[in-house]
Amino acid sequence: MSIRNLDDLLAEGVSGRRVLVRADLNVPLDKETGSITDDGRIRAVLPTLTALRDAGAAVVVCSHLGRPKGAPDPKYSLAPVAARLGELLGADVAFATDTVGEAARKAVEGLGDGQVALLENLRFNPGETSKDEAERGAFADQLAAFAEAYVDDAFGAVHRKHASVYDVPARLPHFAGRLVLREVEVLARLRHEPDRPYVVVLGGSKVSDKLAVIEALLPTVDKLLIGGGMCFTFLRAQGHEVGKSLLEEEMVETCRELLARGEGRIVLPVDVVAATEFSADAAHDTVPVNAIPADRLGLDIGPRTVAEFAEAVGTARTVFWNGPMGVFELAPFAAGTRGVAEAITTVKGFTVVGGGDSAAAVRALGLDESSFGHISTGGGASLEYLEGKALPGIVALEQ
Ligand code: 3PG
Ligand code: MG
């Protein structure tokens, strides 16, 4: 792999130089208060920022937050992120109230050696996500003008062909940051040479979102354990009635084919927690999968399933987990996700948690992050990597 990384840049010397760092500071915010509910992605970029500061660079950080529509939207301002970043760095972060305008120019020009500025949300500009190369290029020109070198540490966004991810590196000497480097090393090991048995645990609500990764993983995994909302379409394909549970009718045939192709390597729940409605107060019972009542919906995997999944991961030497096993945000339906996550923490082999959401679940459930081998900051990005797709942000660093 011909990617230059942060150490190569540091070896060149960065003192007195301006370095643009693309980070993924797309953190979850509380809907009511707007405060940051999980700062994992901010903490994940600190090693790169600290190394640059210590080496005397003037550091210009940029990121997206949420999906604003190419114009400023206060709901998606990075201002609270700038404050939290400053706390974590123990240093002032100059926050620019625009991305490439007057405020940004002032913030960048005012930076001394070892200081940090954060630009406002990249996606407040239509050029960031534009499909039109010229429009993206014009925005990339403006960003690139702020610095003499570019570092990509936004692993969660490397699967996006966006100006700050794909077009800026074509305009500046470019380097992978510490986080991107580590993520790619870990996922490459999973894709090319996992220690066996290799067990993958997949959850989440939709089969259609995970279809490509299931197809890509099927030839390489020893076991693929499926929970979460998407298990019901598989259970339906096995002939079970699933009541009011989440069901993608048009995917049932596909699931049937996958089960046949998997030749027993795809493992489905044997029991589920079935509730009267989608609510923490709903009446609920554990039922075997062949007895889901017609007027109930499954919101978690049951304890027998947790035990079976735990046994399967217990023998593994490599585990990759993406997606919750149930509606863990509601206390009565959190036991499945907690049980499987806890089982993964006891695995002797190498364990990887894939995804912004699964990573947030680990922290929300109060599990010890250090008991996992690696917690990825990218959901979509890690899945697309394991699918074998070329990721625009990585391709751009290779060129
Ligand atoms: C994510 O949260 O998955 C990344 O930050 C990418 O965000 P996006 O899906 O809006 O491009
Ligand atoms: Mg996402």
Write the layout of secondary structure elements.
Layout (H helix, E strand, L loop, with lengths): L5 H7 L5 E6 L16 H5 L1 H9 L3 E5 L16 H11 L3 E3 L6 H8 L6 E3 L7 H4 L3 H12 L4 E5 L9 H5 L6 E3 L1 H15 L5 E5 L4 H11 L5 E4 L4 H7 L14 H11 L3 E2 L3 E5 L8 E5 L8 E5 L1 H12 L3 E5 L12 H11 L4 E4 L2 H9 L9 E2 L3 H9 L4 H7 L1
Parallel strand pairs: 1-2, 1-5, 2-4, 3-4, 5-6, 7-8, 7-13, 8-9, 13-14, 14-15
Antiparallel strand pairs: 10-11, 10-12
Helix pairs in contact: 10-16, 11-12, 13-14
Bound molecules: 3-phosphoglyceric acid and magnesium ion.
Magnesium ion (MG) binds next to α16.
Task: Give an account of the 3D structure.
With 399 residues, this protein is of the alpha/beta class. It has 17 helices and 15 strands. The chain has a six-stranded parallel sheet with strand order 3-4-2-1-5-6, with helices on both faces. Helix 10 packs parallel to helix 16. The chain is elongated, with a radius of gyration of 22 Å. The N and C termini lie close together (10 Å). The model has no long low-confidence stretch (mean pLDDT 96). 3-phosphoglyceric acid binds next to helix 16. It is an enzyme of class 2 (transferase).
